[in-house]
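2024-03-11 09:14:02 INFO receiving multi-entity request
2024-03-11 09:14:02 INFO entity count = four
2024-03-11 09:14:03 INFO echoing inputs for audit
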Amino acid sequence: MSNAYNRPDQLSPELRKRVLDTARRLGYPGPDPVARSLRTRKAGAVGLLLTENLSYAFRDPAAIQFLEGLALACEDAGHGLLLIPASPEREDVASVHRAGVDGFVVYSVPDDDPHLAAVLERPVPVVICDQPRIDQLDWVGPDDEGAVRVLAEHLIGLGHRRIGVSCMRLARGRNDGVASVHRQANASFHVQRSRLTALAAAFSEAGVDWAQVPVVERFDHSTESGASAAAQLLEIDPEITAIICTSDILALGALEEARRRGVRVPDDLTITGFDGIDDAERVGLTTVRQPVLEKGRAAGRLLLDTSEPGRPRDVLLETQLMTGTTAAPPRSAEERWFGP
Amino acid sequence: MSNAYNRPDQLSPELRKRVLDTARRLGYPGPDPVARSLRTRKAGAVGLLLTENLSYAFRDPAAIQFLEGLALACEDAGHGLLLIPASPEREDVASVHRAGVDGFVVYSVPDDDPHLAAVLERPVPVVICDQPRIDQLDWVGPDDEGAVRVLAEHLIGLGHRRIGVSCMRLARGRNDGVASVHRQANASFHVQRSRLTALAAAFSEAGVDWAQVPVVERFDHSTESGASAAAQLLEIDPEITAIICTSDILALGALEEARRRGVRVPDDLTITGFDGIDDAERVGLTTVRQPVLEKGRAAGRLLLDTSEPGRPRDVLLETQLMTGTTAAPPRSAEERWFGP
DNA sequence: GTGAAAGCGCTAACAA
DNA sequence: TTGTTAGCGCTTTCAC
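2024-03-11 09:21:47 INFO inference complete, emitting structure
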């Protein structure tokens, strides 16, 4: 009987048909997938853990592209993709415990995320995307430090010394405002930490006192946040010549704010992003492009690749500086006040 | 022991802690979710069946919004969302059989989809979104016929009589070209069928011979398809004054094609869409808006709503005619050839 | 508060 | 080729 369903080649077609017909007539709904999973120790699904509300994943263009890549890899392997409900608000970890999956992909969560801890307790393979970095675990992501350094040197080359930084949340607790150097260094989001560290290093080398550079943090990742962060930066120091944003979304918000204020980009103000989403390209944002879809696909492949040629494995993705039209040499103070 | 994990209130905290500590020390990874599912007959997850490749779901704005709504509902109920790999190419239904879920949401699949048949065999609740309509099954969707009729009457009111139609795939088999009246009536995608039927009815009442109206079908749902469909329509009958598209994506493609040809919209040609995605609103497309996010949320709620006040239930969503800037009265032939 | 035992539905191994 | 059986790991029930 089991054979009739699972190994059509092990018995004659006619017998198979007879068995199946009889089964259906008796109201047998087919093998129970859960019981089968228990027996075979395979769920045929991959779990995805995000640090945000599930619905957020469908609002952030970078997250969507990541999902697409991951879905592609799962589909190739005939696996399902289980989105695990793990809002940052509720500490409830049960959803991780309940997930019937063969492994987890963890996408960009903070070091101290309780859901991550729950995932790590499960006896299944785990692949981390972006953050955090954990020993002995497969990892996929871009070289954030290197990419940011290239961007920073581009801006330094243009002549920028007085800058402001707009960044995404640095820890699980909400803090919409200035992030002290201490908070920057202790950020529990590894990616944000490296980007800020790389910026600090590059600009320090160029003679900038990093402690004087305003870094403004926003909890929600949205263009509104980007706009208000830009506004705050311009208030703190109206003399800054560039706003460096750690994501394109924040940068797009900054562009909006600049337009609103009549500040010309890049003439009066340089604005840069990070990620390389479609909208960024459309408006010609100067940014760093990372292959987000590839990231998702690589994560899926890594997890589902059964031939294990020595774990842990790292996949470092190529990034590319996109010199758009939102970065230019700063104008001198006189130029800014009295025109060119 | 089971109690320690599942019913913290049934035993003293200290005992609970001791049990859990000992368990961890012995290397016990926590209760196996699959075995638990087998026993409790609950998977804590909802399956989603689409008719497209999984990755497609992350490219179509309407699908993304639907997913967001569905994810929202799942999250509220603490359920996971399992995306089931069911490409239209492979007839392989095993992924449906393997899915450990408490129910399925079926999103816009054709009447004769084999994966749908597999879903219906599973002894779990099913909610259908958009299509097909199946007796005794919960359903969520807009009033396609009504909405299209309002749109058609709008165009008829403007004076359009010589029109062309650009529509999405009508059956599982690829057919990029003209769709005969017969093919229209036999479309296995219920939604496309109703929209075409409603158009035919409205325009027939206005004195148009529907058999003479060119209806062009495209298998792939993309702006490129929309553009080529528009091109084909204009080739078949250069005198048409309006192109009605059964989706915004197709309409956006048609707009591109018009721009490429120097055909002015709406002066020389009226173009309409369906769905009301963000991009459509941005460019001012005349279209029908349906609450896509709400559709996803309603589907999830319907499936997860345990209090069953009499199934099957239908949720009919409100639609709204968006009179944008891409529809206007047709110009007479002379005007079109010799200018206003 | 604790322990023992049945059984969820399946698959794989083995026996006939 | 077909039939039988053990046991996957859990929860629930019931006896202690």
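2024-03-11 09:21:48 INFO post-check: The CA atoms of residues 223 and 253 of chain B lie 4 Å apart.
2024-03-11 09:21:48 INFO post-check: Residues 3, 10-12, 15, 35, 38-41 of chain B lie near DNA strand C (CB under 10 Å from a C1').
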